[in-house]
Design brief:
The protein has ten helices and no strands. By secondary structure, it is an all-alpha fold. The protein has one domain. It is globular, with a radius of gyration of 18 Å.
Length: 258
């Protein structure tokens, strides 16, 4: 258990850094942060480079523990601001079916990453903090809850779109739709346990292991066989799975302090 928070932190940092590098190299936004269609090409290129660089720097700082607490706090705050002042208004302004849970999937993925950043920041003792970091530190207790909200939502979606999700299960695994229901129930149960602090250490650890298995058995093979046009999205999805696994492992190790 002693190495678990370090493993989780490295998983999260690697995932964020890879998403950032991919964004900077290809100058295209990850699908969880897509811009409106009418946004200028020049603006897209500039924002992609800036955002990609921020992701890469924060991920690297977290992996190598270079001012990791500060990097995690600032990164979590950035994602939370984007979620509150862009993603949420965008769902209403565009007139999409915002009453359907599936429409909020990308916003929730970003919310989970923000929560994960705060969870990781809480793994470090506060040093000589300024007024900004002292304020951001107050968000640390919300980190696990923000992450759990997304996990519960994903669990519900497993039941809502079970037939479509079953097509993503590798063909060598029997009874795919049954596994979708089992995983959905596991997601809901682990998310609820994190929110209400019920046997969090065990269930968060099992959640991290389950998502890590998805990363190995589902996402890596999909990245390997994906056409070039779809590969960036598949890499982003794989990175998200790795990040979520890492967050769950850190929550598991910090269960008594949440």
């Amino acid at each position: 258990m002693g190495k678990l928070p370090g493993i989780g932190r490295i998983f999260y940092g690697i995932a964020i850094a890879v998403i950032g590098l991919q964004t900077s190299i290809y100058r295209t936004f990850p699908y969880i942060l897509s811009l409106p269609d009418n946004f200028s090409i020049t603006g897209r290129l500039i924002l992609a480079c800036v955002l990609g660089l921020l992701f890469a720097l924060c991920g690297t700082a977290i992996v190598f523990e270079i001012k990791a607490r500060l990097a995690a706090l600032l990164f979590g705050a950035l994602l939370l601001l984007i979620c509150c002042f862009y993603c949420i208004p965008y769902e209403f302004i565009t007139g999409s079916n915002y009453l359907h849970l599936g429409e909020w999937e990308n916003a929730e993925k970003e919310l989970a990453l923000a929560g994960g950043a705060f969870v990781i920041a809480g793994n470090y003792h506060a040093g000589n903090e300024n007024r900004l970091t002292r304020f951001l530190s107050k968000l640390i207790p919300l980190g696990a809850i923000l992450f759990a909200i997304t996990i519960i939502s994903f669990g519900i979606l497993h039941f809502m779109v079970a037939k479509a999700a079953a097509t993503l299960v590798p063909s060598w695994i029997p009874y795919p739709i049954t596994w979708i229901y089992i995983c959905g129930a596991a997601l809901i149960g682990s998310g609820v346990s994190i929110v209400f602090k019920i046997n969090t250490k065990l269930l968060a650890g099992l959640l991290g292991l389950m998502i890590l298995l998805w990363f190995v058995l589902l996402h890596i093979p999909r990245v390997m066989v994906a056409p070039a046009a779809d590969r960036t999205d598949e890499i982003t999805s794989a990175c998200l799975a790795l990040a979520y696994s890492g967050i769950a492992f850190v929550i598991c190790s910090r269960a008594s302090k949440l």
